[in-house]
Amino acid sequence: MKTLIAANWKMHGNLGWAQKPAEFRRLFAQSNDNVEILLCPPAHMLEPMVNASKGLDIYIGAQNCHDQISGAYTGELSAVMVAETGAQYVILGHSERRAMFGDTDKWVAAKTSAVQKVGLKPIICVGERRADRVAGQAEEVVGAQLSGSIPPKADGKNLVIAYEPVWAIGTGLTPTIEDIATIHDHIRSCLTKRFGVRIADKIQILYGGSVKPENAEEILALGDVAGALIGGAGLDMKSLAAIAAAAGE
Ligand code: 13P
Hints:
Blueprint: E1 3-8, H1 20-27, E2 35-40, H2 46-52, E3 58-62, H3 79-84, E4 89-92, H4 95-100, H5 105-117, E5 121-126, H6 130-134, H7 138-149, E6 160-163, H8 177-195, H9 197-200, E7 204-208, H10 213-220, E8 227-230, H11 237-247
Parallel strand pairs: 1-2, 1-8, 2-3, 3-4, 4-5, 5-6, 6-7, 7-8
Helix pairs in contact: 1-11, 5-7, 7-8, 10-11
Bound molecules: 1,3-dihydroxyacetonephosphate (13P).
1,3-dihydroxyacetonephosphate (13P) binds next to strand 8.
């Protein structure tokens, strides 16, 4: 399975950042076929970033979209519109969206269907809050989010899952390596129950939450961690290149 190194730029950057794909490639040459790079900029940068990434073997993705194709949804972007920019991925159900913008499991499932229908690849984010972990309910919470956020009719194909513990995002804190392994195992077994081992084994499960060059190698070495979803460290191409290099180790 390929390792996916994905940077979620959140609401950072400007059109000048379209030079970052080339900068990244100067720092991390296209020598490793096993590492895929994905940059997820704010919506207004999608098309320029797609153009700037041509020939560089870098995927571009959106950070969210609406579940409807079009309509009176002021401020929203549909999956069709994302596809029109040439982007290939959409992050869905990020904890910031769940906490601040009303994304529920059910809505994430509807968005996922819309994304898959237009041939884009969804990255569904799940993760427990600190209180859930303290209460010993991390697996239960992640399992419930997973089952509610994957559409009822999904076949398990064309799907990426990202485990992002809410308390690890932007805090510099990470779960222990054992805890990451435990949750990734749990996610894999939920997927296996639902889709069967043959399909479940092909689903990439990423880890996200304070991934940086210093901890990337240890996290990415875990058997069931097929990549990383990176916030802060993904804004800087030097850090991102170091993380990508760690993935290739
Ligand atoms: P940080 O890497 O800044 O913790 O953010 C993780 C994240 O939210 C990626 O989606």
